[in-house]
Specification:
Uroporphyrinogen_deCO2ase_HemE; about 350 residues; lyase; decarboxylase; two-stranded antiparallel ribbon; 16 helices; binds coproporphyrinogen III; porphyrin biosynthesis; Uroporphyrinogen_deCOase; 9 strands; seven-stranded parallel beta sheet; alpha/beta; TIM Barrel; globular
């Protein structure tokens, strides 16, 4: 009996997003959209009403999978992003979390050594988060073969800003204040979230996530050495730990509003792709960021509200600016509830058909 000793030929991954993340330039960039499952879609609002509230939606795997699939059915995006929230980690560490309609998230706070000591150990998160892993398992069965499944978590700095303030803040003042007043407690919070995030993203990958993304929505308020210590260093730690366990799973990092600190961010953290917000121009980012590898972004989400020729022109300009290298088309931040679903369709047509 002869056995063919040749290994399987190395093929580039078929899914367009995985090809972009592997550094491949494509004639048409793959596309997905931050907050693509959200309140601008009537079918999302219906499922959310069925769940009762936002957190029940996050923790009910069948319904969370359903809202993840809705924008895939409607638009055929190249990727689906797991439906969950970055604030599930603080909750899994033992903090209270609730959402006030029209206002946003509220949490119990952690600002003292005693409150830090009272947080659960990172390994305890799976008890709370196992429904999220079940959502991932459902999605990896139900998504079309060509659609990439993206898992995610908040980056430690951004998650810590909510844990310290107990809510969203304009300038992340309470977190900056704790960083100055009690460095050890602040660093302890960052470290606990970092450890939990490694375990959380690993579990998502083991359940079927093919790519993971780290959302550092408030990275732009870190400057100088603080940016290195609290945006770069935690991302580098998380990515190194993930690459050790899952070397072939690409990581997208989103240090939102990092400005000129986007330059070199992929190299410094080990990320396979840097997601760009719309405060940087695509031409600038093509020259200074895309030279290191894949970039994602960066249409202003306001175009999903206003539409028209301005949407088409801005979309084309971004596609053109990034056409020389690997690019995943996306918005620069999440789509807002007042967006018109027709404008999303127009954006996708413009990217795919050059319409
Ligand atoms: C800071 C942050 C949060 N959550 C998230 C971030 C980082 C990205 C960013 O900067 O937007 C990330 C997030 N939140 C949600 C997802 C799901 C995946 C996706 O579609 O992108 C993701 C990736 C669902 C959600 N998370 C939330 C909603 C709206 C909840 C609802 O249905 O009422 C959704 C769809 C609620 C949420 N969750 C959070 C806030 C501040 C709010 C309230 C603001 C708002 O209402 O838009 C925390």
């Amino acid at each position: 009996m002869t056995q063919d000793p040749r290994p399987e030929p190395q093929q580039s991954p078929a899914k367009t997003i995985l090809r972009a993340l592997a550094g491949e330039r494509q004639p048409v960039p793959p596309i997905w959209m931050m907050r693509q499952a959200g309140r601008y879609l009537p079918e999302y609002r219906a499922t959310r009403a069925q769940a009762g509230d936002f957190l029940s939606l996050c923790y009910t795997p069948d319904l969370a999978a359903e809202v993840t699939l809705q924008p895939i059915r409607r638009y055929g995006f190249d990727a689906a992003i797991l439906f969950a929230d970055i604030l599930l980690i603080p909750q899994a560490l033992g903090m209270d979390l609730w959402f006030v309609t029209g206002e946003g998230p509220r949490l119990s706070t952690v600002t003292t050594p005693g409150e830090l000591a009272a947080l659960k150990p990172a390994e305890a998160i799976h008890e709370t988060l196992s429904p999220v892993y079940e959502t991932v398992r459902i999605l990896s069965r139900e998504l079309p073969r060509e659609t990439t499944l993206i898992g995610f978590a908040g980056a430690p700095w951004t998650v810590a800003t909510y844990m310290i303030a107990g809510r969203g803040t304009r300038d992340q003042g309470p977190a900056h204040a704790l960083k100055q007043a009690d460095r050890a407690t602040f660093q302890g919070i960052i470290d606990r979230v970092t450890e939990a995030t490694v375990l959380y993203l690993s579990a998502q990958i083991e359940a079927g996530a093919e790519v993971v993304k780290l959302f550092d929505s408030w990275a732009g308020s870190l400057h100088g050495q603080d940016f290195d210590d609290f945006a770069v260093a935690p991302a580098r730690r998380i990515i190194a730990a993930l690459k050790q366990r899952h070397p072939h799973v690409p990581v997208i990092a989103f240090p939102r509003e990092a400005g000129d600190r986007y330059v070199g961010f992929a190299k410094a953290t080990g990320a396979d792709c840097v997601a760009l917000d719309n405060s940087v121009s695509a031409e600038w980012a093509a020259r200074h960021v895309q030279t290191d590898g894949c970039v994602q972004g960066n249409l202003a989400p306001g175009h999903m509200v206003t539409g028209g020729p301005a949407l088409v022109d801005a979309t084309r300009a971004i596609v053109r600016a990034f056409s020389g290298g690997p690019h995943i088309f996306n918005l620069g931040h999440g789509i807002t509830p007042d967006a018109d679903p027709e404008n999303v369709a127009l954006m996708i047509r413009t990217v795919r058909e050059g319409a």
